[in-house]
Amino acid sequence: MRAFLGLGSNLGDRAYYLEGAISALVSPKIEVVALSRIYETEPWGVMDQPLYWNQVIEVETTLEPLDLLHVCQEIEHRLGRERKVHWGPRTIDLDILLYENRVVKSEELRLPHPYLEERAFVITPLREIAPKLVLPSGKSITEVSGEGKVHPLTP
């Protein structure tokens, strides 16, 4: 199954945490297919915190969405993520943005990601690796820009 994951880090060695999360995802059940560039972005929600580095990756997985979520949460835990403040600073954040065309509405997981189309730090790198993607809303990825300033770190 095809899924897109959003990664973000704004504490410590941001490159280390992004690379570490991607490396930890690779397994017999998860193959990383595409990676966007890394973008420096403003925080979302709680504004008084360091700038983020964000990236979107595409994976092929045999895991069901909830199992993929649990893998992501375990990787966050191993990389020192502490959940103290909602939308607060973090070593690493791994969000499932899309999983095929599935819609999931449970206490533990919502798909597609509820803020997908609102956040430029997700839409911009997603557009980079999936320029022909049609979002669950029916809009083309090229029609949506999201909010916030997004600056690529690499050309």
TrEMBL record:
Pathway: Cofactor biosynthesis; tetrahydrofolate biosynthesis; 2-amino-4-hydroxy-6-hydroxymethyl-7,8-dihydropteridine diphosphate from 7,8-dihydroneopterin triphosphate: step 4/4. It catalyses: 6-hydroxymethyl-7,8-dihydropterin + ATP = (7,8-dihydropterin-6-yl)methyl diphosphate + AMP + H(+). SUPFAM superfamilies: 6-hydroxymethyl-7,8-dihydropterin pyrophosphokinase, HPPK. The keyword Amino-acid biosynthesis does not apply. Gene3D superfamilies: 7,8-Dihydro-6-hydroxymethylpterin-pyrophosphokinase HPPK (3.30.70.560). It is an enzyme of class 2 (transferase). One of its GO terms (biological process) is tetrahydrofolate biosynthetic process. Residues 86-97 form the 7,8-dihydro-6-hydroxymethylpterin-pyrophosphokinase domain. GO terms for molecular function: 2-amino-4-hydroxy-6-hydroxymethyldihydropteridine diphosphokinase activity; ATP binding; kinase activity. It holds the Pfam family HPPK. The keyword Repressor does not apply. Keywords: ATP-binding, Folate biosynthesis, Kinase, Nucleotide-binding, Transferase. Its EC number is 2.7.6.3. InterPro entries: Hppk, Hppk_sf. PANTHER family: 2-AMINO-4-HYDROXY-6-HYDROXYMETHYLDIHYDROPTERIDINE PYROPHOSPHOKINASE. This is 2-amino-4-hydroxy-6-hydroxymethyldihydropteridine diphosphokinase. It comes from Candidatus Desulfosporosinus infrequens.
